[in-house]
Amino acid sequence: MASNWYKSFMAERGVDVGSHKPEKAQPGPAMDFENMRDNGVRSLKVTCVKCYKVSVVNMDGFDERLTLKSFEPKMVCRSCGHKGADVRPNWAEKRTRPFPL
Ligand SMILES: [Zn+2]
Fold it and tell me: Is 0.85 topped by the overall pTM?
């Protein structure tokens, strides 16, 4: 929630905070490997939609313009052989920063 000082601060700069309407979450552009690498992630977390087996797949060497979605129908589960998986960036890989104490 915007406080009053924030509203006037922003109004001075031509931004009417009060008129902001909540927007529906819009799917952004499909994530590709370039975007993923910019986020510090180099591997995919692939989850079988049938048996939920999770695999982490390193994607170094793949074209950075390929989207993650384009891999979903091509992934074949090593466990049950099902074709088609949920593909996401392996965000766990990003947690390399030491926990701040
Ligand atoms: Zn499976």
Answer: no
